[in-house]
Amino acid sequence: MQGQTKIQERLRGIQSLIHEIEEARNHSEAGINKLTQNNNPSTIKQAMQDAEKEERLIRQALSKIYEIHSIRNESRIHARNSGQKEMLRKGQLMKMLQISAQTLPLYVSKPGEKVPQLVGCIPANAEYTAKAGDMVAALTKVVDKGSDEENWIMAEVISYSHHTQKYEVHDIDEEQKPRHILSKRRVIPLPLYRANPETDIHALFPKGTVVMALYPQTTCFYKAIINDLPSNAKHDYEVLFEDSTYANGYSDPMYVPQRFVISIKQRKS
What we know:
By secondary structure, the chain is of the alpha+beta class. Helices cover about 35% and strands about 25% of the residues. Strands 2, 3, 4, 5, 6, 8, 9, 10, 11 and 12 form a 10-stranded antiparallel sheet that branches. The protein has a two-stranded parallel ribbon with strand order 1-7. The model has no long low-confidence stretch (mean pLDDT about 85).
């Protein structure tokens, strides 16, 4: 209940900010119209101040959206630790993943600002450790007895031990199966922010890059090639998955959200 109260507070704050942003935008547009008639230094200065105010308000709204994500994640972890298991049907799970990708916070850098790790294609550095509740790609053995095959699966971090440098994770598609204990090199944190193609194109994988991408309607990552980049913040990557059933060795184009496209990693034991 406390989590819901916090979320409602943030939502009210966002609603208030939306009105302020609309007012600031109207004021800014009026200033821009003045520039077409009179571009003296004082008019230019006022137009820049108006634009900066609008940007500041938008960033405040984005920050509150990220806070809501964090609160929901904390509430879910608390419920799970209290013994409340979240049983989802396959269709519900796929819908949840789709929504989580669409609502992943958007990072918009300021001019000259370096884009931090886990924004778009920017990977985590060697010292980074994912927190409890974070989604990751995890290299695990196939459950079938006697099989040595391994797959990169979508998993949720339960905990990380700095002493052993190992993660405890569980497959989000198989709640009832034992949790996995994996070395750090077998876990890849997923992006925490989407990159904005209009301001941070360098934080997106270039066309032709070999990546790992979540195959649509599954919870497994497979090797793919970037065929086209998102044209705006709402669009997904267009990828071609490796597929031997096709004459050219690749599938038809498929669309995968930024959150589920990561740097390829060689399998190690």
